[in-house]
Design goal:
- It is built from 17 helices and ten strands.
- By secondary structure, the chain is α+β, with helices and mostly antiparallel strands.
- The strands form two sheets. Strands 1-3-5-7-6 form a five-stranded mixed barrel. A two-stranded antiparallel ribbon has the order 9-10.
- It is globular and about 80 Å long.
Length: 466
């Protein structure tokens, strides 16, 4: 049902809208046959049509942009993220909640300007420029060399605290540690230099400065270790508050929204003593986020990369662990390597389709860098808090994350200089689909092998007992 729902949402982007939606859905909902095959078919049909209906509503809204492309427009919108400088020296940021001539437009627009203007997340701005179309669905267009006027500043306590925390942390840690440390902590990428971004891409480490499931997993596991044995209720409540606060500070990107759904569902299942099947958990999170915003399913790279990486971590990595370590957890570095390779394998066809190149030293880089990320996040957070509360003590605390960040920068810089760090391979759509089919076939074969091994082990144990 979840798969069919996402398939229906995807198909709706081509303008296919079932006008006979209710005529077909109502009989199936009111009468579900008892035969299993027919019941399954009913679920698939209903879910697919619901997906088409939801996608169709978004298609009608997004279709308004077509008549606006290559025309001069003036929109009033909300700044959706932190502003930064692009390669051409322009101030660049994204806007949402877009209003044009009193009409509300969906999605986001990318804005760049040469003006000396200061904008913060949540500010209401007026933007005038020629609207150009954009590839993908993470943005519905871009306004370059725009005229920007700040209409209303965001005076919320959250944005005020966020700005003071970032400024205090940057001031104590200094450069380049402050920018990279905040990138680790909350995914703040706006001020990371292009050279550093290129080095992270060369070593396959871009994901560590993009807020994703890894950040949320660190929070969930830390709270569970501290409070899990004392009180499951307190653990769930505190974790939920921390996740909500983290998302409020970091922003609700497609990858973080999907990861948040996975973390919350996993946390609730743990609280009630239940377990999710990994495939159900992945598809449920995909269906919920896709239904909330069909633009994710239509081609948002961040959503797809996050979804595929989690598929590797939740489906493939446990099978590999079971094959080689049975019920015992693998050593930490081996576990990181297995999860990294699993995530990379599942994202590889899509990455090659999008970018036509891949980092071959990513496994080594991740083994050297990832174990220190939780310590750096803790150190940066503690340094920022002390910088606000007790500035005189913050400089001493900053030595801890600075030393770890210096080590990581040395590793990243030296690995990125290797001539074989990246290789260029391009995949067409058909080859990408074939590659995914082969990977899924391999996962299925691995599942069969693991199940047979478990069955044979259980049989041997029964014989020994007898």
């Amino acid at each position: 049902g979840f798969s069919a729902l996402m398939a229906g949402i995807y198909v709706a982007q081509f303008g296919i809208q079932p006008e006979w939606f209710w005529l077909l859905v109502l009989p199936l909902v009111l009468f579900v046959p008892k035969r299993r095959f027919i019941s399954l078919l009913a679920v698939l049909v209903v879910s697919f049509i619901v997906g088409m209906w939801r996608g169709g509503t978004m298609f009608n809204q997004v279709d308004q942009y077509k008549k606006l492309y290559n025309t001069s427009v003036t929109v009033v919108a909300r700044v959706a993220d932190d502003a930064g400088e692009n390669q051409r020296g322009q101030l660049e940021f994204m806007v949402d909640s877009i209003v044009l001539d009193k009409n509300r437009l969906p999605g986001k627009l990318q804005v760049s300007t040469y003006q000396d203007v200061v904008v913060y997340r949540g500010d209401r701005v007026s933007v005038s420029a020629q609207l150009r179309s954009a590839k993908g669905t993470s943005r519905q267009g871009y306004l370059s060399a725009a005229k920007v006027e700040v209409l209303e500043k965001n005076t919320s306590w959250l944005e005020s605290f966020r700005s003071r925390f970032f400024a205090a942390t940057n001031g104590v840690l200094g450069q380049p540690y402050g920018v990279l440390g905040l990138g680790y902590l909350v995914g703040l990428r706006a001020n990371i230099p292009q050279l550093r971004s290129d080095q992270l891409a060369m070593t396959g480490l871009t994901h560590i400065i993009a807020v994703s499931g890894y950040n949320l997993t660190i929070i969930v596991q830390a709270v569970r270790k501290l409070l899990g044995k004392r009180s499951a209720y307190q653990s769930v409540m505190i974790t939920g508050l921390l996740l909500a606060g983290f998302i409020a500070v970091a922003g609700g990107s497609p990858s973080i929204n999907r990861a948040a759904v996975v973390c919350c569902l996993s946390l609730l299942a743990w609280y009630f003593g239940r377990r999710f099947q990994p495939s159900v958990l992945l598809l449920l999170s995909g269906a919920l986020t896709g239904f909330a915003n069909p633009l994710y399913v239509w081609g948002d790279p961040g959503w797809y990369l996050s979804f595929l990486a989690f598929t590797g971590v939740l489906l493939l990595a446990p099978l590999i662990n079971e094959m080689f370590f049975h019920d015992k957890p693998p050593p930490m570095l081996v576990g990181i390597l297995i999860e990294t390779l699993s995530a990379q394998l599942l994202t590889l066809p899509y990455v090659l389709f999008l970018f036509g190149e891949v980092s071959v030293i990513a496994p080594l880089a991740n083994i050297l860098v990832l174990p220190l990320i939780p310590l750096i996040m803790l150190g940066v957070f503690a340094t920022g808090c002390l910088a606000l509360l007790a500035p005189s003590c913050a400089a001493v605390m900053a030595l801890f994350p600075q030393s770890l960040l210096a080590l990581q920068l040395w590793i990243i810089e030296h690995l990125s200089q290797l001539s074989f760090a990246k290789i260029a391979i391009s995949l067409s759509v058909i080859r990408m689909i074939l590659a995914f089919a082969l990977i899924l076939l391999g996962i299925r074969m691995l599942q069969v092998v693991v199940k047979r091994r478990e069955k044979s082990s259980l049989t041997e144990a029964n014989h020994l007992v007898q």
